[in-house]
């Protein structure tokens, strides 16, 4: 279920509810880079459980960040996740955040995998 409330004392609190936590940014990054099916996401993020991935995808969909499309109704279903069209600015921000953290890691001699 979505964590979004009707009122926030700070925009960053809303941002945290939308994309905060351990998994949402990683999920968004992978979806925006082509890992747009459940099976691809589980391979791309092997340390996330299927239950948690399902919950996070549902929250992102409920909040209008991603869209879920059923391509094939016949078993097995093919479901594709895409970044909602109106959220393209968010993906640019995620990309810039990745760039920033890579630079930070480099300056601090922290090893970060791509």
UniProtKB/TrEMBL annotation:
GO terms for molecular function: DNA binding. Residues 10-109 form the HTH hxlR-type domain. InterPro entries: HTH_HxlR (IPR002577), WH-like_DNA-bd_sf (IPR036388), WH_DNA-bd_sf (IPR036390). It comes from the Bacteria. Keywords: DNA-binding, Transcription, Transcription regulation. The keyword NADP does not apply. The keyword Transcription applies. PANTHER family: TRANSCRIPTIONAL REGULATOR, TRANSCRIPTIONAL REGULATOR, MARR FAMILY. This is Transcriptional regulator.
